[in-house]
């Protein structure tokens, strides 16, 4: 029943997402028990103009 | 003041969303009291490539 | 598969929560189709000191 | 380390986002201490058809 | 109508929260326009055992 | 920079959380690249009275 939300910068391939959700599910079941079917994972692809660190959007050059 | 976030697979029509938010708001006021105007609902349309159950993305065929 | 997150001010009874999740699930299946078992609902009880509207926490007297 | 999620109606310019994240980060450091680099901000641009108040989507005329 | 969620390590005082929500609301209205009453802010106090960076919980000593 | 939110039923031990965040971070770096320090994970322990599936809270007996 664990539910994951993953926010990551846009641009990952479907192959990366496939592998990531398989691995996350595997380690979750290993550590917490339960069945793989009880693990839900939702990914959000975040645009660079919508993520800021240190007060600066990731569309900007960083010093 | 209750605030809802609804994540659902993309592809619902505007008519379905209209009806869903009206009904959710109605039952919320019925059960919790308060005014309809205090109920906010935000919907996220999730792409199949961004939702996994059992370690498999919903773009994949399921056995 | 729709997943709901409901944030509401703390203080609701279990009876209210029971009724609310039953009703939300019922209207969701009515409007979107699918089976009730595919509907997950997570509630967050928010403390008054952790919610602000108009720049003022809900622990404060409101004019 | 504070992490912000801001949901707002779509349509803001990059200039507004730039200014907003700079200001949010500045006031956060002023009030909570810590370094600007520890502040992350994620923005979600919400479509009008995905936000409802009072049981009515923001695509609808409001009385 | 912007809605903020702020996650921060537990331990901030009510005074800090009061000041933070007032300032966040002020800069939001300055940059985006609209009325202060349309700004909602929800704070989550996160326990150190529930936040990890670099694969290590914040309850652990950091090298 | 990926940021994880994990919602799970309350009752996991600190040892389980330690192991889970270490493993999640490891597989994330393996699949997406980047440094472990860029991975943040926030856990929410959800009470049984705050999670419903099929319209029924997890405090209730299930048929």
From TrEMBL, chains A, B, C, D, E, F:
Keyword Isomerase: yes
Gene3D superfamilies according to UniProt: Macrophage Migration Inhibitory Factor
Active site (catalytic residues): 2
Highest taxon above the source species: Bacteria
Key word Isomerase present: yes
Protein name: Tautomerase
Organism for this UniProt entry: Albidiferax ferrireducens (strain ATCC BAA-621 / DSM 15236 / T118)
Domain 4-oxalocrotonate tautomerase-like: from-to ranges: 5-57
Family membership: Belongs to the 4-oxalocrotonate tautomerase family.
Residue ranges crossing the lipid bilayer per the database entry: none
Molecular function GO terms recorded: isomerase activity
Keywords carried by this UniProt record: Isomerase
Alphabetized Pfam families for the sequence: Tautomerase
Cited InterPro entries: 4-OT, 4-OT-like_dom, Tautomerase/MIF_sf
EC number: 5.3.2.-
């Amino acid at each position: 029943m664990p539910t994951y939300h993953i926010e990551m910068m846009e641009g990952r391939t479907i192959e990366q997402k496939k592998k990531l959700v398989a691995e996350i599910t595997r380690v979750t079941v290993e550590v917490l028990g339960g069945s793989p079917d009880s693990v839900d994972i939702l990914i959000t692809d975040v645009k660079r103009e919508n993520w800021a660190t240190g007060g600066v959007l990731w569309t900007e050059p960083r010093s």
